[in-house]
Recover the amino acids of this structure.
């Protein structure tokens, strides 16, 4: 590592989410205005370092991007340099191309890299830091809010808004038609989006991966409401929810070592079972990638901007192998290892679940 940092690289990797551009903008402005550094934009996540897609970005490039969804740098949740997919005789094979990444970093005179991503990205950053000593600083992003070391990731609040507003919309039509409305939200193995949007939207039943459900208990919650004169119900289901003793519902298995399982379908399964057990007309909405698109919420813009600024400060101070994080109201730094190795899950006996139960929400338990 050079003594003085002159040029930093920045990349966005993994699934996109609102707020990525706000981080890029904060990184570029802080690096140039505050520290006189040059910034190199790495395209399409780690793929840009494998395939040499690197070019300088200036303040002009980040002008007007604060409210824009997506990422001006592009992203990929498939290009893992340690398990990179190639086709050999038409068949997929996974090889280590991390040396190629090192060559691109050296060729472009990049002194440190800021990686904006979720658990997969931070795991890769950690490996480059530990194995090759590359000065890495992470910024936590994901709508799933499942990254360790930080109270919250940016992107979560924006996804929560989409999910909550969708539940609100389903509420009125459920009430008019006396139906059960099931809404399937994202989150992979963590139930944060379902739990928080379910509470914020007044969901009557919330199903999350951390609390395996019994469908008979879900039906009972709905029937209990009917007895009280409530002839409609809203059931918020996390894509990773599973029945007690059962498995997650898999939409597709793909040859991607980073994320071989694509979740999806639990909403329809639960919807069919509710209709059978209760006899009530049931409809299912799968929110899907709507939760990842569009403009970041003000909360996410602010958090992303704070993260971007602090990431550059860590680089300048030479604090590598770290990820910026939020604890309470403060921006702190944690080790990449803490972030990558301790995924954050909903506590089944935590305050939020206890409160929802007290208010009458069913969890199928
Ligand atoms: O991690 C973010 C996320 O949106 C998950 O909630 C979801 O399971 C997954 O990514 C979907 O990934 P893809 O965009 O590859 O379908």
């Amino acid at each position: 590592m050079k003594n003085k940092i002159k040029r930093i690289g920045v990349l966005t990797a993994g699934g996109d989410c609102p707020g990525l551009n706000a981080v890029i903008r904060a990184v570029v402005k802080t690096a140039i205005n505050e520290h006189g550094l040059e910034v190199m934009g790495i395209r399409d996540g780690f793929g840009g370092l494998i395939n040499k897609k690197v070019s300088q970005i200036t303040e002009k490039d980040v002008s007007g991007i604060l409210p824009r969804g997506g990422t001006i740098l592009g992203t990929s949740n498939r290009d893992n340099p340690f398990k990179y997919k190639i086709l050999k005789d038409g068949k997929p094979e996974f090889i280590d191309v991390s040396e190629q990444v090192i060559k691109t970093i050296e060729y472009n005179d990049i002194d440190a890299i800021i990686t904006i991503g979720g658990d997969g990205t931070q795991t890769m950053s950690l490996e480059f830091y530990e194995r090759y000593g590359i000065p890495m600083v992470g910024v936590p992003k994901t709508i799933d809010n499942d990254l360790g070391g930080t109270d919250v990731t940016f992107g979560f609040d924006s996804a929560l808004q989409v999910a909550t507003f969708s539940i609100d919309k389903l509420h009125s039509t459920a009430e008019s038609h006396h139906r059960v409305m099931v809404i399937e939200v994202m989150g992979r193995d963590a139930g944060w989006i379902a739990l928080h949007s379910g509470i914020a939207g007044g969901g009557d039943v919330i199903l999350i991966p951390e609390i395996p459900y019994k469908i008979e208990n879900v039906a009972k919650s709905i029937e209990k409401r009917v007895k009280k004169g409530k002839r409609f119900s809203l059931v918020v289901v996390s894509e990773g929810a599973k029945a007690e003793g059962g498995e997650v519902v898999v939409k597709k298995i793909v040859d991607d070592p980073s994320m071989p399982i694509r979740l999806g379908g639990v909403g329809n399964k639960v919807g069919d079972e509710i209709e059978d057990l209760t006899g009530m007309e049931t409809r299912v909405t799968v929110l899907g990638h709507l939760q990842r698109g569009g403009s970041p919420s003000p909360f996410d813009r602010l958090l992303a901007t704070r993260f971007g600024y602090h990431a550059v400060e860590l680089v300048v101070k030479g604090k590598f192998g770290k990820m910026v994080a939020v604890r309470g109201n403060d921006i702190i730094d944690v080790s990449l290892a803490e972030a990558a190795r301790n995924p954050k899950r909903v506590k089944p006996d935590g305050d939020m679940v206890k409160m929802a139960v007290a208010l009458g929400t069913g969890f199928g338990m």
User: Anything to note?
Assistant: The first strand starts at residue 7 and ends at 12. The domain at 7-154+296-341 is CATH 3.40.50.450 (Rossmann fold).
